Amino acid sequence: MVALEDLLTYGLLSKKELLELSKAAGFTQPSVVELFRWDFEFVSQIQDQSRDFVLKGGAAAQLYIPTAKQRGSVDVDLTFPGQESALAGVVHALDGKFASSAPLFQFNEYVPKNPTHVLPMKTYNVGLPSVLNGRCRIKLDVLLVNLKVPSRTIESAKTFAGTVRNVTCSTAGALIGDKLLTLARNTVGIQRLDDYPKQLYDLEMLTFQRDCGVTELVDAVKAVQVLTPVEASFRNKRVEPADALEDVKATMTNFSSIDLASADIQFKKALNDFQQFYVSKSEMSRKWYEWSSRIFRIRFLASLMQMYFQGKLSPQEMAKLLATSKSISSRLRSTEVREMDKARSELLKLLKGPGTRELRGKPLDRVFWNVVTPENVEELEKTM
Questions:
Q1: How far apart, in whole angstroms, are the C-alpha atoms of residue 115 and residue 231?
Q2: Staple 313 to which of 32, 266, 290, 317, CB 3.0 to 4.6 Å?
Q3: Which band of pLDDT confidence, cut at 50, 70 and 90, is reported for residue 383?
Q4: Which whole-number Å values give the CA distances from 40 to 121, 167, 176, 325, in the listed order?
């Protein structure tokens, strides 16, 4: 946390520092770095008032992702187990702390005119100084629920915008479970198409681009178990975890044709817009089959977790099947050209329905993720 007098006098970064960080991280929009830095400064200021605030969402996810693969995050998502009056006290204290710089650094409550769901949530817009544009803004969403999902305090984490210290946030596994549920579009998930790419990206990075073992999967199923009834109650529904995960699988199947002729044009646009603003140049991809593979991987993950809730897999078995799928995928990406057609033909034998013909020209790894299931992954390991 920056000292108050320095924050008010100098801000967070000079323009030179900001542009250097942005260039080093490979972002086309330097404002991504500035907003991300402000996100964590305000989390630090809030948690200095009370350690009961827990960071979740995209900003928290980046603390577990390798620096080169981190994305930008504009908003801050927090949970707070206290009453509205306790939250109001924190906001009042921070408003007073920064009173000399008003209207900057002040919490302005935002109340949606026609909310889709009535949530126990408070949303604030906070105006901040910007070395790029004079002013910028971050949005704080504070969910007033005592969510008993796994969390921890990270003493130090390197990010593309600088080192973050002493942040209390959800664990990597809890974030995996939380983000999976956001994709249950017809039951407990999000509705806006534009919000899907960042969830898909984070799940890919948290689960498939880093080690994800028993510890993470245990926390993930705990999060799904806790959050499913909470999210369902906000919508006046009753939803079981296994049903929410079935919804995730169906949603992923609907989006998976992104690289085929039947692709959803609006979804493609959402992915493009997301990459242009939030993702570094090194992680941008115009190869739609790579996004399709990511979507199928998330469907596979949802299938593993669903089988846990159905009593068919233990966390240890889930971790083993996940590791096996990653191993096969890695092997297929290095398959010699002369073996690719044979392997693709074997995989396509397991697939029926529209789009099969188009897959004959797709990369082998993409076909594998289309075909693999928890039930056949061990058999595929023997044949691939």
A1: 15
A2: 317
A3: confident
A4: 20, 8, 21, 35
Would you state the structure tokens that stand for residue 98, as one six-digit string? 């920064």
Q: To 10 degrees, what angle do helices 196-203 and 172-182 make?
A: 140
Q: Quick one: CA torsion of 109, 113, 116, 122, rounded to 10 degrees?
A: 10
What whole-number distance in Å separates Cα of residue 25 and Cα of residue 6? Answer: 25
For the residues 229-252, what does the mean pLDDT come to? Answer: 96
Interval 117-156: pLDDT, tens = 678 999 999 999 998 888 999 999 999 999 999 999 999 9
The answer to whether 200 touches 320, Cβ cutoff 8 Å, is no
What pLDDT digit, counting tens, does each position of 349-373 carry? Answer: 888 766 678 888 888 999 999 999 9
Tokens standing for residue 129 = 């100084």
- What's the whole-number average pLDDT of the chain? 92
Task: Write the DSSP symbol of residue 358.
Answer: G
Q: What is the pLDDT of residue 358?
A: 84
**Least confident interval from 46-50, 102-106, 325-329, 355-359:** 355-359
Contact 322, 301 (CB under 8 A): yes
| Residues 223, 174 contacting (CB under 8 angstroms) | yes
Strand ranges of the sheet holding 134-143, from the earlier edge strand across to the other edge:
107-110, 121-130, 134-143, 75-79, 54-56, 162-170, 151-159
HSE-CB at 233 with a 13 A cutoff on CA atoms is 8
* CA–CA distance, 213 with 221 (Å, rounded to integer): 12
In the chain, DSSP assigns E strands to 54-56, 75-79, 107-110, 121-130, 134-143, 151-159, 162-170
Cβ neighbourhood burial of 299 (10 Å; 0-12, 13-18, 19+): buried
Cβ atoms of residues 13 and 131 within 8 Å:
yes
- Indicate the burial class of 278 (C-beta count within 10 angstroms; 0-12, 13-18, 19 or more): buried
2: buried, middle or exposed (CB in 10 Å: 19+, 13-18, 0-12)? middle
Residue 182: count of CB within 10 angstroms of its CB:
22
- For CA atoms 175, 180, 185, 186, the dihedral sign is negative
